[in-house]
Amino acid sequence: MPDRASVIAALDAILDPKTGQGLVAAGLVQGLTVAEDRAGFVMEVPTADAALYAPVRDAAEAALKALPGMARVSVVLSAEAITAPTRRASLSPQAVDQTRPKAPVATDRPAHVRRVLAIASGKGGVGKSTVAVNLAAAFAARGLSVGLLDADVYGPSLPTMLGISGQPEYRDGKIQPHVAHGLKAMSVGLLTRADDAMIWRGPMASQALTQMLTQTAWGTEEAPLDILVVDLPPGTGDVQLTLIQKTPLDGAVIVSTPQEVALADARRAHRLFEKVGVPTLGLVENMTGPVFGQGGAKAEAERLSTPFLGDLPLDAAFREGGDAGAPVVVSQPDGDIARRFAALAERVARALGLL
Fold first, then answer.
1. Strands ordered across the beta sheet of 251-256
2. CB atoms within 10 A of CB 312
3. Rounded (10°) CA dihedral 261, 263, 265, 269
4. Residue 198, pLDDT score
5. 303: which residues sit within 8 A by CB, 6+ positions away?
6. CA 107 to CA 246: how far, in whole Å?
7. How far apart are the C-alpha atoms of 331 and 140, rounded to whole Å?
8. Rounded to an integer, what distance in angstroms lies between the CA atom of residue 291 and that of residue 288?
9. What pLDDT does 132 receive?
10. How far apart are CA 132 and CA 255, in angstroms?
11. Residue 280 in contact with residue 318, Cβ under 8 Å?
12. pTM over 0.85, yes/no
């Protein structure tokens, strides 16, 4: 198994064409990850130097692939324009508008996937992943063919919540997803060790998402996937924009707790989807009850003129099911929480035209 020292040595044997130093010594190796039989990093250069460094990237890939035990290598060449900072106040309104990033245009949905649903939250810690896993299980309980993609590349939780582990197989050029509780699941947490920190810059995180989204065997022509549920990381950053760019989203469900600090971030998530033309199918209030309050997400849904999909109580069963790798919808199918998720799944499936 390759170690970090041998990877660094191999990369430093390749010279930076500008400084004559090795790639690591020259500071060109960003976000290096080494895990079992794979390694990857980002090489960030000015746009004008992209052509100069393309052969360097190829040489780095070849050097890493030549290491004993190295099966998969990812070297991302990120070319970014480096310009002097401009004072925003000196720009005219027309110039300011021209500098704003344009909304990304989606390319195509993953092969043999009928619908793609994003589960989002502006803020972390609101139980978004728990809702995503249990909602996916509720879809499956209705007889739908369901996939679950863990797009939180920095904090993947799907392997623990579904009780799955081990690297996925590669067959016919496709990643074969794990199957648990009737769900086809894929997560970056299955590609790395559980205690690895994903010290990745935006381009590498985006590439990881793109690979899982487009190279996973979600369905076939004979048995297409009805719905792919994508558990997004918190916020409105690179991963969200990459997903929007790579596939048409059929809708988004936003998860929030009742208090204002979480609702403010849920509002921002809604605005993101609104700006790029993705319909928000509704808000879900999680952890409702005496600790965090009640009714905040419902009132926010009314302010945003979007449906309120229901509330979920703060219940130890959520934590127990997640820790045990068995979603509460599966472990307690006749319980109150499972019934709430069944109603939520029905509303969302109908909104997506799946029922």
1. 178-180, 183-187, 146-150, 225-231, 113-120, 251-256, 280-288, 308-313
2. 25
3. 170
4. 61
5. none
6. 5
7. 14
8. 8
9. 96
10. 9
11. no
12. no
End-to-end CA distance of the chain: 49
User: Do the Cβ atoms of 33 and 39 come closer than 8 Å?
Assistant: yes
Regions of the chain where pLDDT drops below 50: 81-106
pLDDT at position 96 is 32
Cα 119 to chain centroid distance, Å, stands at 10
33: left (phi over 0), alpha (psi -120 to 50) or beta: beta
pLDDT on residue 79 = 62
Query: What single letter denotes the amino acid at residue 118?
Result: A
Q: What is the pLDDT of residue 311?
A: 95
Q: Give the integer Cα–Cα distance in Å for 70 and 60.
A: 13
Measured in residues, the chain has a length of 355
Identify the pLDDT of residue 183.
97
Alpha-carbon torsion, ordered 164, 137, 254, 257, to 10 deg: -80
Cα(211)–Cα(110) distance, integer angstroms: 11
Q: Which amino acid is at 211?
A: Q
Structure-token match 């019934």, residue found: 339
3-state SS string for 140-156:
HHCCCCEEEEECCCCCC
- Return d(Cα 294, Cα 179) in angstroms, integer: 36
Which residues, including other chains, have CB under 8 Å from residue 235's CB and lie 6 or more apart?
122, 124, 265
Amino acid 335 reads G
Residues 6+ apart with CB under 8 A from 6: 67
Long-range Cβ pairs for the range 139-144 (8 Å, 24+): 139/226, 139/227, 139/229, 139/345, 139/348, 139/349, 140/181, 140/182, 140/183, 141/182, 141/329, 141/333, 141/342, 141/345, 142/342, 142/345, 142/346, 142/349, 142/355, 144/226, 144/227, 144/349, 144/354
